[in-house]
Design goal:
The complex is a heterodimer of chains A (397) and B (139). Chain A is globular. Chain A is built from 15 helices and 9 strands. Chain A has 397 residues and is α/β, with parallel strands linked by helices. Chain B has 139 residues and is an alpha+beta fold. Helices cover 40% and strands 16% of the residues of chain B. Chain B has a 5-stranded mixed β-sheet, covered by helices on one side. In chain B, α1 crosses α6. The two termini of chain B are 18 Å apart. The chains are: A alpha/beta (397), B alpha+beta (139). At the A-B interface, α6 of A face α4 and β5 of B.
Chain lengths: 397, 139
């Protein structure tokens, strides 16, 4: 495929934190790396499921073997970062006199841990007023040492500077950014092999959504393109394999790298209509974020196809589709179909009935209003109004 | 200031923008839902360079200057960046990360209106034209 002439904004910035370390078993470096960062007394943040599955212990064991002191393990983190849970996490950090933290988990754990670290660094004990400011860049201070171990290959939260928090009262998701995130993203694919196929599938679709929306965003630029498009190549090659062969370290490792690449991409270029609509589904119907993205992705891609056809042409090429003499419009259609085929291949067949999402327009309207005001909707390549969003929801279910 | 001759010009333009925007049903309802006293503070460009919008309790009152009581939300930036912002030419993420916009108070409600900026920019263009300031329209 010949690279199409692509325009981008004449000025952009690229945020390049944190350092990334990759290797099966890289968790054994935890003592040295945390010591280098100046940490000695570690609070570990994880969830009950990962404790029960023995995954958290794989990291905790390395902490015990090192010169670090294990101050405590906070394993109460729930699905979707929540203000109260974040405040409890900060109180725990202080109560056990920790001076650094390790997060072991998926997006909810990593986002909660990032928010806890902001509270500790800013000397505050309530995240609510910070969440309401959305951008925490004014007067931001460096935060205590923080290592992040993702246990799913999807969220990219280990490298993004955003925290997505569920506002339980407003039933909405808020995105808060701070200049400092984790110090090191430690990518250890051995931590992901116990992930069940279904969760592997929808977290992988989350990563794919980050890559596709990052490349088609109105803020897209060449650095993001390079990372997002390679993430798509890896996901189309390795996601079916990771679902089929959970213990395949090559597949797991490549998916973890793809997720991080996609995280770096969308963390800088933002996302779009899939995320805006998926946030509504997550906040109002508690559909896991990756699954909500997987549901909305082909629908929103189809809606955007004509507006960003040349970008979808690059995506179709990265998917490995035989484009031959296809024009950009046909390639965009092929990319949409490839996403539908991939979902079928990895067993994502959920429908409306699985989540009790209503079909009536009036009942869907509050969610459409929420999505129309979501922070990500402005980055969609095609302008989206509430009426359009409503149609997308109806089409999806 | 790059776009303005004195501190009164931007306030004239922005107050006119909000007065016109509130005649649009979608924007009027959106602003009312914010339900806050908002101070748009451009005083870095002059002591009187600011205006406020009171959309509490179903009201929608727009006035030049600082509000008489403590605002729920203060958005501080330069009058030039405000001009870029209302023209939909200021990337909000970039603006926050480069500290061009400083926020005090809860911005959650107002941020929900950010996707409407495209519509607002069209109104702003008309307002500038009506004020005889076509040369200020950003292409």
């Amino acid at each position: 495929m010949q690279y199409p002439p692509i325009e981008f904004e004449p000025f952009f910035t690229w945020l390049n934190r944190p350092r990334i370390m990759y290797s099966p078993g890289v968790r054994s470096e935890v003592g040295f790396e945390m010591g280098e960062l100046g940490g000695s007394k570690v609070a570990v943040y994880t969830d009950r499921g990962l404790v029960d599955a023995g995954v958290a212990e794989m990291v905790i064991e390395e902490v015990r073997k090192s010169d670090l002191e294990l101050a405590g393990v906070f394993d109460n983190i729930v699905q979707d970062a929540r203000i109260e849970n974040i405040n409890e996490g900060a109180a725990f950090y202080r109560s056990c006199s920790a001076d650094c933290m390790i997060a072991v988990g998926g997006g909810s754990v990593m986002d909660t841990a990032k928010a806890v670290n902001i509270l500790i660094g800013e000397g505050s004990d309530d995240f609510q007023p910070l969440a309401e400011q959305a951008g925490l860049w004014e007067g931001a201070r460096p935060l205590p040492p923080h290592l992040a171990f993702p246990t799913t290959a999807g969220t990219g939260s280990e490298v993004t500077n955003a925290v997505v928090v569920l506002d339980e009262k407003a039933q909405a998701k808020l995105s808060i950014t701070h200049p400092y995130n984790a110090d090191i993203a430690m990518l250890d694919p051995e931590l992901t092999v116990r992930l069940p196929p279904k969760i592997t599938a929808f977290t992988g679709m989350d990563a794919l959504t980050h890559a596709i929306e990052g490349v088609t965003s109105t803020a897209a630029e060449p650095i993001g393109d390079a990372l997002g498009l390679h993430a798509i190549r890896l996901i189309f090659t390795y996601l079916p394999l990771a679902v089929e062969e959970p213990e395949n370290i090559t597949a797991r490792g490549n998916m973890l790298i793809a997720s991080t690449l996609a995280g770096l991409c969308f963390g800088n270029t933002m996302t779009g209509g899939v995320h805006a609509t998926a946030h509504g589904l997550g906040a109002q119907y508690h559909i896991p974020h990756g699954l909500a993205n997987a549901i909305m992705l082909p629908i929103v891609m189809d809606f955007n196809a004509e507006e960003a056809a040349e970008r979808y042409l690059m995506i179709a090429d990265a998917m490995g589709l035989p484009l031959d003499a296809m024009d950009a419009s046909d390639a965009a259609g092929a990319a949409v179909q490839a996403v539908i085929d991939l979902k079928a291949k990895i067993g994502l067949t959920e429908s409306r009935k699985d989540f009790n999402v209503p079909m009536e327009k009036e009942k869907l309207m509050p969610m459409a209003e929420l999505a129309a005001g979501d922070s990500q909707v402005s980055y969609n390549p095609r302008y989206l109004e509430e009426e359009d969003i409503l149609k997308l929801y109806l089409k999806a279910f | 200031m790059e776009y303005w001759n004195d501190e009164s010009e931007p306030i004239r333009a922005f107050v006119s923008l909000f007065e016109t925007a509130k005649t649009d049903e979608d924007l009027r309802n959106g602003l009312r839902k914010v339900n806050q006293l908002i101070w748009f503070d451009y005083t870095q460009d002059g002591p009187n360079c600011s205006f406020h919008v009171d959309c509490r309790g179903g009201n929608l009152l727009i006035s030049a200057g600082k509000p008489g009581e403590d605002p729920d939300l203060t958005m501080s930036l330069s009058a030039d960046d405000a001009h870029r912002s209302w023209s939909n030419k200021l990337n909000p993420v970039m603006a926050i990360t480069r500290k061009k916009i400083r926020v005090k108070g809860s911005a959650t409600g107002l941020l929900r209106l950010a996707p409407k900026l495209k519509k607002v920019a069209k109104i702003y263009e008309t307002v500038l034209r009506d004020l005889g300031w076509e040369e200020k329209i950003l292409k």
